[in-house]
Amino acid sequence: MTLEPSGRVADVPPSGIRRFFELAEEMDDVISLGVGEPDFSAPWSAREAAITALERGQTAYTANRGKRELREAIAADVRRWNLEYDPDSEVLVTAGASEAIDLAFRALVDPGDTVAVAQPCYVSYTPGVAFSGGEVLDVPTRVEDEFALTPEALRAAGAESADLLVYCYPNNPTGATMDRSELADVAAFCREHDVDVLSDEIYADLTYEGDHVSIAELDGMRERTVVFNGFSKAYAMTGLRLGYAMAPEEVIAAMNRVHQYTMLSAPTTAQHAGIEAIRNCREDVEAMRSQYDRRRNFVLSRFEEMGIDCFEATGAFYVFPECPGDDAERFAEDLLEAESVAMVPGTAFGAGAEGHLRASYATGLEELREAMDRLERFVSPA
Ligand code: PMP
């Protein structure tokens, strides 16, 4: 066959989330709790900064690493989490956190290296490891631990021999967060077994109880950690494609080596929006966060009323209830067909997620109300 896809690509299955979107798209009147995307628009002044940049004709590439002003704004902003990075050498602006994650795998993983992936997790890590020729080691987390990553889970999976560990907290799909002492236990494991860490903190601003803590802040971890973050979630800027990575100089240089050939620079218009977002949109972030928090409380209380078990998610904009039926995939399909409510079966997010469903509450309260009424009708027909 001509133009035959490489085995590396052909072997990666399509995303389990997409299939549900496609089903839902074919139907009318669907309330989707399936998408991991804010229902808000980006703050107005950030949009205006993008418009102004366009009006001024600022349509050229930027520096490979991103506009200096933006890197400075990022470095200043992350001090909120006790992170200190040099904007010149330790920050790389990317086309979404997605690009940063891909670059880190390509820059750090040699064929045959083992990457421990804490699961359930965002869908891009396992394929990203495969694209870079590494081997994935599944590390399931447990609902009994409120989906926190623990040294026991790492040991049970054999992660002592891993080269890298990747995880995200606040977590997609569970909504779990990790506190300082839980992270300190993971950090101790990583130092003891010489495991480096890729920490996806894209939901750091969407934390509802306690403050976000980055593992990179903990003793001896900065030098072995790459932190990812971005503008998609906190600033509702998914379509602008803007994210960043922070790491020691040599790692950022290696990632930039790939980035400068594959991307050149993150979207210029988005970078203008990003500068404004960090400098002047804190109140907008806080307003969105408090809306999400209201919705989170609403959904959790409705689940409780319905007798659906759900651990108390404390971050991101997802809840991860136990599926009332035996087969979550079947349940999600039947729910969609009978009541036009889309949720994603946990199995789309890897190991440790069996018997769960992911529901996103990045949807207006009215729609959430209707979705919960329909779910109730479905689980306990009159
Ligand atoms: N990491 C996690 C945990 C996510 O949920 C997402 C988006 N769903 C991303 C990364 C990708 O974000 P971006 O839009 O910045 O590429």
TrEMBL record:
Its EC number is 2.6.1.-. It is an enzyme of class 2 (transferase). InterPro entries: Aminotransferase_I/II_large (IPR004839), AspAT/PAT-like (IPR050596), NHTrfase_class1_PyrdxlP-BS (IPR004838), PyrdxlP-dep_Trfase (IPR015424), PyrdxlP-dep_Trfase_major (IPR015421), PyrdxlP-dep_Trfase_small (IPR015422). Pfam families: Aminotran_1_2. One of its GO terms (molecular function) is transaminase activity. Its cofactor is pyridoxal 5'-phosphate. GO terms for biological process: amino acid metabolic process. Keywords: Aminotransferase, Pyridoxal phosphate, Transferase. Gene3D superfamilies: Aspartate Aminotransferase, domain 1, Type I PLP-dependent aspartate aminotransferase-like (Major domain). Residues 29-375 form the Aminotransferase class I/classII large domain. PROSITE patterns: AA_TRANSFER_CLASS_1 (PS00105). The keyword Transferase applies. SUPFAM superfamilies: PLP-dependent transferases. Homodimer. Belongs to the class-I pyridoxal-phosphate-dependent aminotransferase family. This is Aminotransferase. It comes from Natronomonas moolapensis (strain DSM 18674 / CECT 7526 / JCM 14361 / 8.8.11).
